[in-house]
Structures are given as C-alpha cells and as structure tokens.
C-alpha cells in the first residue's frame, strides 16, 4: 500500500479494516457502513451497533446478524466529551509511542498506534483502578499479552497518572535502569501486572488472574457484600493466538466459565514476516467458540469507538463464558507509508515518516507533548481512583465487622503475610518412619499446609494421582465450584505454569502450586522462566524425577533437567531425599514468595535417612553423617534426592574399612551458594579434594562441587525402558560405583 | 460402572459409546442404532453409514445429519472374510497388549483395547507397507501420538510380520534391551516412524511427515509417474488434543491443506485423572473446523467397523484438507470391571481382571497366543508388501529412465547420501572480510547450502527477517506451492520443532532447519529433546543469542540456555564467533544427520577474527592465537561466539604487557569432549591452571573448563533492557574484566 495522498490512504485503511477479513458478500453492506466515522458519545444501549458482530457461525459460513445489545449495566465511566477531544487523546497515545520509539531508535510503534482506541476506552472509560496505589486489591487487571507493544501501556499509565511512568520515564524508553523497559515488567513498573513479551504468556497469565478473582469471589463474597469483584482485560495479537499456550489456557478459561475475563484480539493481519496469510489462516473465532468462549467481532477497531464500547458491554453481560472481542485494526494506524505493513511492527518510523504521520493525523506538537485538554481530561483518574479505593475500603470495613474470620483470611491473602507458626504444620520424620516416595511425602506436606495457608491452591496437568497433589480437604475448582482449591489443568503444562504465574501475581498471599512429571518441565519451561523473572513464587511439584521411574523409558526420564534449572537465574531447584527434606523443601518454597521453587520428587520409595532435617535443607547443602574429626574427612560423598541413600550406604561400607567419611546432602545448590564462606568451608573444606558426587542425572556442572580431583557419578546419555533397579545397575548409579570412585581418590 | 454380568456390561459400554458425548436428543435415535453389531463386510460405498457423522456444526449445536459417502475410490485392501475372524483378529491385538502389560506388570492396556479396531483396519486393510523393509520409501507412515498405548503398535507390527517385533520381543515388553520399550522409539524398533510418549509430539511429527510427502510429491511427481504417493496416519488421544503443540501443528496442517494427513482422535473420554469432563470440555470438532480440517465423527469406534472404513474413504476423498476422524471408543474395551475408567489407562489389569476379560471376550488362549487362522489371515502382508515395493521399484526404474536428473536428486533424498564436495559450497572469510552478525553469516551459509543440498528446507517461527533464514532461490512452501522450500511456521516454535522432526525422519536426505530467537528454545524444548533422542538431525538456527540483542530486554535475552543444552544428551550446541566458524557450524550440523545441532547466533555485528576456521570448529575447541611456546602459556583465555572477540582483545593487551597468552575458541563442548586426550592436552594443558573464560551467559558448567583456580566471566542473573553496548559494560562482559581476571591468577 503506497498511496500518495495521506487522506486517501487513511480512507483506504478504513476500507481495508472493514473488508480485509471477510469475503462473505452478505456482510459487505454492514462493513462498509463503518467507513463513516461514528460520533464520540456515550454508549446508547438501545442502538444496535453497525459494525459489531456477534459470531453465530456455521462451520464454513458466517452469519453476521445484527443483534441488539442485551446488557443493561452501563460501562462504568462513560465520557460525554466530544469526539475531537477523544481522538486527540487517542492520538496522544499514538504519538507518545511514536516519540518514545523514535528517541530510543528501538521498539514497536505499530501496535500502540493500532490499539490506541481500545486501550483508551479501557483505561479512560471502563477500568477500575487507583493510579496512586497500583496494588489496590480490587482493581481491574490489565494484561498486554502482545508485550512488544508496551508503549501503549506506558502511555496509558502515564496519562492515567501512575507515578511509575512520568514524562522522563517515557523519554528513557528501553534505556538502562528505566521504568520503561522493552517489554512490560511487573517488577520494574508498578501498574504493570505481569511480565510479557514471550507471546501467549500474558493471555495465560490473564486466565490465572481471572481464576484468582473467581476463586476469591466465591470464597469470600457474601450476598450483602461482594468484596471481591473485578474484571481481567487482556490484549492479544496474532502471535499470541498462534502460540499453543494460548489455546491451552483458553480451553481452560472456557471450561471454567471465566465470565469476567475479556480478551481483545488485535486482529491486524500483520506479523513480523508480513501478512498473516502466509501462515495463519485459521478461523480464530470458530476455534474460540469451540473452546467455549463468547466471540464478538468489532470490524473497525480504528475508529469504531462505540462498537468497542458496545462489545465490552456485551462481554460483561455474558457471565458464564469468557469473551473474545476480535478487533480488526490497522497496525501503525496513521502512518501514511508504513501502516498495515510489517515495517511498522518492530522498528522506529524514522524522522521522515514521523513527520508524515504528524501531518496525516494533524498533530502539531513537539515530541512527548501531552496537550493540556488531554491532560485535564485524564486528570480525573487521580481523585476517581482514590474514591474507588476509599469506597472499597469502607466496604471492607463493613465486611470485617460482619465476617471477622473471613476478613482475616482475605486480608492475609491480600497482604501476603503468612500465618504465625504455619511451618509447625509441616510433618517431620525419624529414621524409623516408613520408607516412602518423596512424591507421597510431598502430598503429606501439601495437605498439612492446606490447613494453615489460606492462599494455597493448585493441581496437576492430568497427573494428580501420579504427582500426588490432591488436597483431600477440598474439592475441585470448577465452573460451579470455584471456591474449591484442587485445580484440574488437563494435559496442558505450559498453560498451567503461566496460569499459576497469574494466580501468584494476583495477590501476594496466593500460593499456587502445579505438577507434572519432571521431564515435562520441557513443555512449560518458558512459563517457569517467566516465574523466575517476574518474581512469582509458584511451587512446581515435579515428580518422577529420574531413571527411577523405570519402564516409561527415556522420553519420560529426566537427565539434564536438574542442571538446566540450576543454571536458570532466580529459581530454587530442590531435590529432597526423604520426608524431612521434603518438608524442608516446602518450607523454603513457601517462604520464597518472589522466587519460584521446583521440587524434584521420586516415584520410587526411599528410606527416611538419619541426619536429614528441615534446617539442613534451608542451607542448601549440609552434613547428614560424618565419622571424621577436625573437618578433615578422608572423603566427602555428596548426593541429592534418591541418591543420597546410595551415598549413605557407600559411606557405611567405607567406614567399615576404616575411612573417615562425610556424607553431604546437596538438596539446593542455590541455597548453599548463599551461605557464608565459613559455613561452606565447614561442609566442603577446601583442603579436602577427595569428593564423590552421585546423582541420577547429568554430571554437567558438578565439577564446581567435586573439583577437578573429584569424581561425579551421573548419567550423560538418555535413559532406558526397564525396571528402575535394573537401569540403576546398568547405568552404574550404585553404592559400589561410589565406593570404587572414593577409593580411587583417597 | 460395575455391572455384575459381563454381557450386560458390554452392552452398557456400547450404549455409552453411542451416547456419552452427545446430549442432543436429536441424535439419540441415530446413536442407539449402533448398538446392534454391524456385520463384518466389505465396504459398500452406496450404503450410508449409521453412526458415521460428518460435522456440520453450528457454534452451539450439532447437526448430526446422515449423509452419503461421497468418495468412489475403494479402500485399498478390503477384506472379505467374516466378522468372527475379524473380531478374533482384533481381540488378538487386545490380548497381546493385555498379556504383555501383565507380564511386565507395567504399561497401558486401555488404549490398545479401545483402538484395536481402527488399528486393525489401518494395518490390515488400508496401509501400504512392506514388513520386510520398514524403510521402504513410499510406505504409508503411521504415528501413534498417544505413545503410551505402544502395545497397540507392537501387536500390529508383530501380526503384520515385522522382524523387529517377534513373540519374544512382546514377552520382553518394557525390559532392558528389548525392542519393545515403554513408548515407541524409532531408533529401537524398525517399523516405528517416530518417538512418541510426550503428548502431542507425534501429531506434530505426523504433520511433518505429511508435509514432506506433499513437498516431495510436488517436486518429483510427473503427470505420467507419481513416484511419491503415500498417506500419513496418526492416532491421537485426549491428552494430545489438550497440548498446545497439537493446536499449533494442526493450524499449520490446515493452512497447508495437507489432504493426505488423516488423524484418528481416540475419543475415549478418559484421561489419567478420570473423566475428561473435569478439564476438557471444549468442542474439539468445532476447533478443528476452525483450523481448516475436515472433521468426521465415528460414534461407535468399538464395533462400528464399517463406519471406520467409510470414514477413511471419506477422508481420502477430501484432498485439500487434512481430516480428523473422531472415533468414540471405550478405553479398556472388553474388561468387565475396568473398561471406561482411568484404572485401565496406565496399569496392568491384574490376573483376576485378565481372566474376566478373557471370559468376557471369549478368549480361551494362553498368553501371547496368536490363533492360527489369525496368523494365516495376516500372513499375506509379507508377499503383499514385497509386491508393493517391487511394483514401486519398477515404477522408479521407469522414472529414472525418463527423468534422470530428478531421479538422482530424489535418490539422494531417499538414501541420505550427501552430494560429493557439498561442503566446498560453504563460504570462507579472511580477517579483512567485513564485520557481520553471525545471523547474517548464517544466511550466507544456508543460501550456499541450498544450492547443493537437495534436501535442505526450513524456515522460521515468524522471524525470518530477524533470523535471516530465507532461501533466496526458493519461494514459500504453501498449499498451492508445496514444491518450494521456505517454510513459514508462524509463531509456533513448539510445533515447528516437532514438524521438523517429522520431516527429518521422513527420509534420511531431508535436512530441515528451523529458527527463532535463542531464548524461545524454551517454547520448543520438548521437541528439541525428542530430536536428540530420536536421532533427527534437525538444524536449529537460533539467533539473538545473548544480552547482545539489547533493548528487547530480559524476556528475550538468553542466559542459561547454552548451559541447558550442553547438559542435554546427543545434541550439538554450537556458538560460532564469526564467518568461518559459522560455516564450520553448518558443516558439522549437516554432517551430523543423527544428532541435532543448535547454532547460537548473534544479532550484533562481529569482526572476522584471525585464526578461526571450519576445521577448528570440527574439533569443538581450538587455539585461534598464541604467543607462548612449549605448550606453556601464562594464561589461557577462552571465549565462545560474540565473546571470542573480547578474549582476543584482552589477549592483545596482555601480550603488550609481556604475557604469553593463548586464546581458545570453545565453539562446541560436545565436539571437544570427543577429541583425543592428546589433542585436548594440546589446547588446554593440564599444567596451565590460569584460565579465564568469557561468555555472555550463565557460568554454570564452566568450572569444568577453567578449573577451580580459573575464572569464569559470565552472567548469572537476568538481563536488562538497554542498548547492547551498555549492558555488556554494566554486566562486566568486557576485555577489561578479562584482563583483570587474568592478572589475578597469572
């Protein structure tokens, strides 16, 4: 598209927007009507919208019937000012994005330019928030799943009055130490709920946020006091739609009937490689109907402002299903020569095109300028937000008076304070306690914690009976029983992880856990990494943690997984050896609310070992037995998880032969790293070079612990299908191997 | 369900099968008609099938209209024997599965018992194969995506006469060293096409197999000789359907119009956690229609044999779309007390229930017995397969005569022989060659290789213009241009990886490559691991490999990724530093057809360094410069990729100060590990403990290379959003840091 006149081009864009996606002649009349600009007005609920189409499709044919808006509730904060101010305000967003990307010479102007109208309507008319307290509990949540378009969100936060995004922050877009990084980061920018950029994650986070709201509302709301009551809005792009994670999460959202989840699909038909026609021709609306969503199509997302408003209203009226509002927009709207092309997706427009866009949209202002009338228009959100929060605080005071117990529980979820003495609930074990798989011991911990932690909830990716994750005192979180705490994720590991991130970031006191086989962390690794980055203290309960699972074979046997997570920043990789260590791992996991934990747990039975302890686990590595003196053992045997038993057995043998042997449990490398040098020296004295490690996984990284004179026993190839004992023997993960290695070096 | 009479139960199961999924009263009449057992007969194409329903759905309501079968082509090998022999043969499959799982006391009997009819029809009536040559090029491909049900496939391979699965192999199911591991493994069992178990992978592999067929057919078929012509069949379960990867791959299959891909969805309504109602209530058929598939529903997959046959016929008649045949079955069909429950999914039935099932299905035989008439019935597949292959060989001989050039090319794809001197096509560089990003140098290599490697094809997950992966001499592989070689995967990394596994395993000479940002290997890690395990030599072109990508920030900056792949078995992690090393990385990647390679490539420009070479890369680690003598440098500086330049700069400075400094490029740890001890000693002499490594990633694992006296410079936290140079400086990835570290130890 290379029209010489910018006016002609703008019209062409509008026409394209209306027709690009629909070759069905029956809709053309409706679509073309959207070329005339609607007036900027309050929503009239009785007027049918011209280009708003609810999907009632057949498999191959769309029935784009008009239908009246059914809801009677008004969109919250309708604005009665004139269209020109609205458009000026929308253009302010566009130019803040253009100017910031231009100054950084880096970023994605296309999405903010195309999504400015829907973003504006959300933040200015629809959403409930207090810019002076971004963490106000009952705020509506907004997620920009297409995170590369973050300048949209920064511009909106700026206009709405958030202190996190001042003018100088916009000017430092994508610069070292700024509050406006290249993708939205909740840990950098108050007002940003989650961390997005990797596509599809944000949509799944939004499902988690909406789940949390539905759960808490069901648990705490009373007929006379709906103390939990907010919506979750999310903007997703074509890229998010293509990612499998979004299908997983949206299938669950439909299953759970998350009626207060409203997703805007920025249908701009452009992705990095060009027109989505080259790789993305599925019928997204039909797919979402299959997933159990309500689907609405706003055909002109560029200027069909009332259609966007009507769609939101309709979405809110549908209470038993999440809604997808497909909003057809023009990427880079307003840029005469780059709109509707991939060139506007991920690069600065360039000085010449910025000028042309200024002319085209009639924008006479300096870069980063917010016109006074626009500023004034937005300034009401400060007092309004304060009032909303005050009103809610009053409501909470009422609630607290009447429902003391519930209020205390809800408060602890809101502020994240763990109940005093909660850790006393953790089970402890003696060497006489029966041998058991750590996955079973994990279930004992989970069930003990469920009694004392009001925010603990979670589940498994269709392996509850293998991962042992059911909370026996609760039922299933389902569409009609959302107050329950066992979440059934189905075989959707990736969606599960990202949903748990959303739950964790909804409220500091929510402690989500999720489970699958350890090897299938591969399916959800991108979500786990986001947990670590965005400081979401999700607990990953990962069972079947080695060749010890036996017959299922190499597709199911983790090898490199422990190493791969030890290398990941801000995550705790814990591999407990028995009951006390499993309890210790849970203590660590619950305490670390800003650092996710992965618990690698055995399928097979393990003995309760003498010397293990919760306190030991908290130090990451510690001595469980030692017959040496003066911190000078002949050899140090180091094990983790199911192999600690083997180390202990080998030590027994070696001691019989007169050796001074120390056995160290190395349950978490990260925690050990954080100990004092003196403590580390007390466990692994520098002078003792005779060290043997044993772990049924990759030896990669173990040189750091055993040193170049030591020996690392492990597995550096794929596993095998056979009974576990046989594999251990064939792979040399045995006490005999430890003894032989020890003797070779001491 | 706990009926006391097994007859009653069988009937109950039939009734359930017919009605379980459909509460629409309009279909009940049709459904109930399926309770009467159809006769076992050849397919009569004129008779409408009673319980076969093509989906013509509205969004919320199924219109289960009868409709006549439209195809006229006959299913290939219709069997005209009687129903009782067919059922006996089907029951043979069931009991081979039951008996093998029972003997192993481990495995999944439920799927084979439920899917035996469709499996039987496929292997006995429909599929084209030669059991004595499992690698015959033009065979139909079969994938059991629900890999846990592998006893179905083993039983079928056994009956069909494959040498890989003899009776003794069935008796060694899931035992050490057997050909019948716990999930299907192509590298263990000829006749198994791909490695499945991790759910959804197989379906995506099947998309890759079907893509390969469509591509090769378009390239090589002639109007008078369709030398490439086979179908790809896949059985998927509920679990596969829930995984996001399957939606990604199936969206592409629909987009590409892979008409010869036929997927059977074993709709048994049971997953490990129980009824799929608890987490999976989406309308799968509607979703697949949205994805552009043809959808058929066989309501009685237990005994509706003719309906299965008709569905296959209909699927074959639809040539422009892949087909999903939803086959409603009863998991564990025939087990009086465990059918239709999760207890039959993943455990042996137990002696008592095995007896009850024998009684219920009228099976008087010893374990593992194949009745003589069943044996005889299947025995024709030996001669038939041989005839099929001979016929094709004759056809190929004709083809070769007439189309010599094409035949030679196709032959090289079939046998995997690389053309002589292919590696001469790789570009080489001198220090005077212009500085460039390794992603651009990678594109030069890919385009050079495309000219000489007939099997090279691939693309990017919507980042072709960032990953620099377009082959300029070719167009896009699309529905109507399948002969082209640029594959547009969309933003679907996971599906992309698994599709490439399918392509690689289709023919030894196909060399698929695929690309995204290195950090997004997290999205596709499960597929990459399968590449490594199943020996698929996929080339992973992973650009933007460090903080060097700059402003996109920590969500996009890999940190732990190099370490995480170095820890993975059977994979080559390569991080080239410049043009020669990029060419070397490609040489290694192309040569290693049974080991996938990951190339980590820079976004930013890098100089062409003196001393780098293709030969050096082949050794994994090698000296690029050295001013020491006698293999006794004062210090060894070790770098990879973009940091090799920094190491070289630091060396220059240190040498100015009189130090004897060796610089080592450590481009692939795996390849270095495979060198002789003498070579290793020549690069990293044991006596030289002063070693400094520098790499813009996790230091995890580097102790192995630098030793406990050395220093590893790297990044053990998440990245940041800022211009790349700034981040390098702030994170201390600088020549100054290397110099300081070197001075501190030498």
From TrEMBL, chains A, B:
Metal-binding recorded as keyword: yes
A Gene Ontology molecular function term of the record: metal ion binding
Chain sites annotated for binding Mg(2+): 238, 268, 270
EC code: 2.2.1.1
Catalytic activities: D-sedoheptulose 7-phosphate + D-glyceraldehyde 3-phosphate = aldehydo-D-ribose 5-phosphate + D-xylulose 5-phosphate
Cofactor notes: Binds 1 thiamine pyrophosphate per subunit. During the reaction, the substrate forms a covalent intermediate with the cofactor. Binds 1 Mg(2+) ion per subunit. Can also utilize other divalent metal cations, such as Ca(2+), Mn(2+) and Co(2+).
Source organism superkingdom: Eukaryota
Transketolase-like pyrimidine-binding domain residues: 436-608
Cofactor: thiamine diphosphate; Mg(2+); Co(2+)
PROSITE patterns (alphabetical): TRANSKETOLASE_1 (PS00801), TRANSKETOLASE_2 (PS00802)
Site (Important for catalytic activity): 108, 345
Gene3D superfamilies registered for this protein in UniProt: 3.40.50.920, 3.40.50.970
Keyword field: Magnesium, Metal-binding, Thiamine pyrophosphate, Transferase
Statement: the UniProt record of this protein carries the keyword Transferase: yes
Active site residues according to the UniProt entry: 493
Single Gene Ontology BP annotation: pentose-phosphate shunt
Composition bias, Low complexity: 41-56
SUPFAM superfamilies per record: Thiamin diphosphate-binding fold (THDP-binding), TK C-terminal domain-like
Segments for region (Disordered): 40-71
PANTHER family linked to this entry: TRANSKETOLASE, TRANSKETOLASE 1-RELATED
Protein family membership: Belongs to the transketolase family.
Protein name (Swiss-Prot/TrEMBL): transketolase
Source organism of the structure: Nyssa sinensis
